[in-house]
Amino acid sequence: MGNLFYLLGLAAAIWVVYDLWVKNYRLSDTEKLIWTICAIFFNVITAVIYYITQKRR
User: Fold this and answer.
1) The pTM of the whole model exceeds 0.70
2) How many whole angstroms separate alpha carbon 6 and alpha carbon 30?
3) Which domain range does residue 29 map to?
């Protein structure tokens, strides 16, 4: 069960980082760096917050 949570967190972090640096042109590089650091340390929580605040605009 632990491996499933690890893979979910890894997938969430990869999605956020990819979407930030490839598809999101509205944010500055500094904001992208902050989101990337948060995605690495707080995987799923950051993905949910990123989706709510950035993708739904």
Assistant:
1) yes
2) 27
3) 2-55
